[in-house]
Design goal:
alpha+beta, OB fold (Dihydrolipoamide Acetyltransferase, E2P), DNA polymerase, domain 1, Helicase, Ruva Protein, domain 3, 5-stranded mixed β-barrel
Length: 200
């Protein structure tokens, strides 16, 4: 099982994956949108990897920190949460922000994430309540503020803004790029392409 990869980012895709070159071998790794925006081709990077085996494929999911990797694994233990949904959640909230949201029972922080419905929110709050220490956050510990201004984009649009900022654009530029985009029914990757076209 692959637990960590350290190498050059050979390629950054718009489908949520990167190609990491290690010892002459290229590993395709799926990463959260927020992390995707911070990875640049030609630069060295370290990704904490979860290896997910299926009957028809062996998939690698990579994270910027060991905490996010742990959060991903715990999210997979929640009924109804698969790898894709867990990645969407961690694309909006990192492990510590997720822990804080669960500690506060902040349903609003989770409801805006694509694919997360009311029942899933309740299952996450219930199942993760006793597992906060894995995230380095307990009910009695100081809770980091994760609330955002009302004007801040939410859901998939927020993921696109985060990715653009990670690519080096200023927050104001990123927010202007998504202002005229219709996000209804579109995937993050498609929205990101539209935003990049607007910035070109």
């Amino acid at each position: 099982m692959i637990g960590r990869l350290q190498g050059e980012i050979a390629e950054v895709g718009l489908d949520g994956s990167v190609l990491v070159a290690v010892g002459g071998v290229g590993y395709e790794v799926h990463v959260p949108v927020g992390a995707l925006g911070r990875l640049r081709e030609g630069e060295e990077a370290t990704l904490y990897v979860h290896t997910h085996a299926r009957e028809d494929a062996l998939l690698l999911y990579g994270f910027a920190s060991a905490e996010d990797k742990s959060a991903f694994r715990i999210l997979l233990g929640v009924n109804g949460v698969g790898p894709r949904l867990a990645m969407a959640i961690l694309g909006v909230l990192d492990a510590h922000e997720l822990a804080a949201a669960v500690a506060r029972e902040d349903r609003a922080a989770l409801k805006g994430i694509p694919g997360v419905g009311k029942k899933t929110v309740e299952r996450i709050l219930l199942d993760l309540k006793d597992k906060l220490l894995v995230f380095g956050q307990g009910p009695g510990a100081p809770r980091p503020a994760v609330a955002k201004p009302a004007a801040t984009p939410t859901g998939p649009v927020a993921q696109v803004v985060a990715a653009l900022v990670g690519m080096g654009y200023k927050p104001a530029q990123a927010e202007r790029a998504v202002e005229g985009i219709d996000a209804e029914g579109k995937k993050v990757e498609a929205l990101l392409r539209e935003a990049l076209s607007a910035l070109a």
